[in-house]
Specification:
One of its GO terms (molecular function) is hydrolase activity. Keywords: Hydrolase, Signal. This protein has about 525 residues and is α/β, with parallel strands linked by helices. It has 16 helices and 17 strands. It is globular.
Length: about 525
């Protein structure tokens, strides 16, 4: 592994299958954010979202005052405003500053007019006060809550003021008070035993909390569609059918060994129609969920050849249609999980195959599982999303053994989502894949090996009082550490807390939903979180 450090950015360069690829994503610990720091989750969450970053000394500097321009950048970024498309006026003293596009976006929405003086100065480097932050945030929120605005500004705000009764309430600007108290009403900011402290500067830890709370407001009430993959050892989850909207049965695979012929196989060790499948179908029907047939294949070279073989594709699609229309199963659609396409030249062939499948299955639904495109270039996200009903982003398996990089660190998951959206996938069609798994590194006499322990074994280890359990930043995964004889063990685990964070991430980006690979691995506490969507 080669590391290149530029400021706070860490570029991780890995080698796989003879090809180099990079995760150009900040993933580092802040030296000054301790385990017990109250702002820990706020800071690392915004870092994972790519909204903030630290200093070249790898510190966050929580107690440092935040400038006006720095806060406006945070707000505009969190609001996902397009700074390349803005017509806002930039005050004279900010025209040539790095922050000008962000200030223009805020100016266009009339959020910062009260901070511009008669000399047309914004004073971008000046520390921003808590009152100014509350006012800007209040304006932002009231823009979004248009039905509330007129009545609030005309008088309802004073009820909030009277209810708070801060000791320093008299020094809050009358002009800004309606907006300040709306921010307080929405619990984005609050006072303490010293009052609201309106004229005090906002420090960086407080700014992280404010922006996090704003983002949380965006996620309230959002519903996600849940797709559960009933595959491998999922029978323990049969009673959970009512908690998903779609269930994809991992019961089939593509068979392709000879040119001109292909088959929809249903009898491998891993992907097969199981004995007692009728019970599974009955449970799905009773839960009134959509039933999809999952088709799996992961042999890259064979897949690339298949996508150039029109006769084989025609044969496969005809068998797929027959299976989907078999009244014994009553499938609602199909989920294609054809993995391994590295070359960009494969992308048009795969897209055309997906189009042909969609045309053949008629009114039945089609979802397509896609890997993140850091390495796999054979999937044209935009074209696939136009052809299919949904794309399931398998935002996991980033694992790199030598660096102890686990399967699904939140910064990389976020990056995968953003890359898909930037390539033109509508959020309304994108599903965030969550894989319930663990990565283990075992070091004995300075030699390290890896493993993927079973979920039940990891849960037992978590219950062991002798094992160290921490919420690992910046990955947002459970880290379990223990010694077993001469073996030093380190396990990164997708636990209930990390699953909740990924569900939250899907809401932040307004995605269609999440998928669960595979249903049998998820624990009772995981299902409790999933039930809340």
């Amino acid at each position: 592994m080669y590391k290149k450090i530029t400021g706070f950015m860490i570029l991780l360069l890995f080698v796989a299958a003879g090809n180099a690829y990079a995760y150009d994503v900040p993933m580092a610990k802040y030296k000054d954010i301790m385990e017990q720091s109250w702002e820990k989750d706020y800071v690392y969450t915004l870092s994972a979202l790519g909204i903030i970053e630290g200093y070249p000394d790898s510190k966050y500097h929580s107690e440092e005052a935040l400038s006006r321009e720095a806060f406006i950048k945070l707000l505009v970024t969190a609001a996902k405003l397009d700074i390349s498309q803005t017509s806002g006026t930039v005050p004279a003293d900010a025209v040539n500053r790095w922050s000008a596009p962000y200030i223009a976006a805020a100016s266009e929405r009339h959020w910062i007019e009260f901070m511009v003086n008669e000399a047309d100065e914004f004073k971008p480097e000046q520390p921003i006060t808590r009152e100014e932050v509350a006012a800007v945030v209040g304006m932002y929120l009231l823009d979004k809550d248009e039905s509330v605005g007129p009545q609030w500004i005309s008088g309802d705000w004073s009820k909030e003021r009277d209810a708070r009764a801060y000791s320093d309430i008299q020094i809050i600007s009358n002009k800004l008070a309606p907006y300040v108290f709306y921010t307080i009403n929405r619990t984005v900011m609050e006072g303490d035993n010293q009052g609201f402290r309106p004229k005090s500067g906002l420090i960086r830890s407080e700014a992280a909390a404010v922006i996090n709370r704003l983002i949380d407001i965006e996620t309230v009430g959002q519903e996600l569609e849940i797709t559960g993959f009933y595959a491998i050892k999922s029978s323990p989850a049969i009673a959970r059918m009512s908690l998903v909207d779609n269930v994809a049965m991992g019961w089939s695979h593509l068979e392709y060994d000879t040119a001109g012929t292909a088959k929809l196989g249903t009898n491998t060790t891993t992907y097969q129609v199981p004995d007692g499948f009728e019970e599974v179908l009955k449970a799905a029907d009773q839960a009134n969920v959509n039933k999809d047939l999952m088709v799996f294949f992961n042999e890259r070279e064979k897949l690339a050849a298949f996508l150039k073989d029109a006769l084989a594709q025609k044969m496969f699609i005809s068998q797929l249609v027959a299976k989907l229309n078999d009244p014994v199963f009553g499938f609602s659609g199909v989920s294609l999980d054809l993995e391994g396409l590295i070359e960009e030249s494969d992308a048009p062939n795969y897209t055309q195959f997906v189009r042909d499948v969609k045309a053949a299955i008629g009114s039945k639904t089609l979802s397509v599982c896609i890997p993140t495109d850091h390495y796999y270039k054979g999937y044209n996200y935009k074209d696939l999303s136009a052809a299919a009903d949904s794309l399931i982003l398998m935002a996991y398996d980033f694992t790199h053994d030598d660096s102890h990089l686990p399967s699904a660190p939140l910064p990389l998951v976020r990056d995968g989502v953003e890359r898909a959206l930037k390539q033109g996938v509508p959020a309304s069609k994108l599903v965030l894949g969550i894989s319930k798994q663990a990565n283990q590194w075992i070091t004995t006499n300075s030699k390290t090996t890896t493993a993927k322990p079973a979920i039940e074994l990891v849960e037992k280890r978590i219950a062991d009082p002798n094992a160290s359990k921490t919420w690992s930043m910046p990955y947002f995964l459970k880290l379990v550490q223990y010694q077993d004889g001469s073996n030093i063990n380190e396990i990164y685990y997708e636990d209930t807390q990390s699953i909740a964070k990924k569900i939250w991430l899907a809401k932040v980006y307004g995605l269609k939903g999440i998928s669960l690979w595979h249903m049998g691995n998820f624990t009772a506490s995981d299902w409790d979180i999933i039930a809340k969507k």
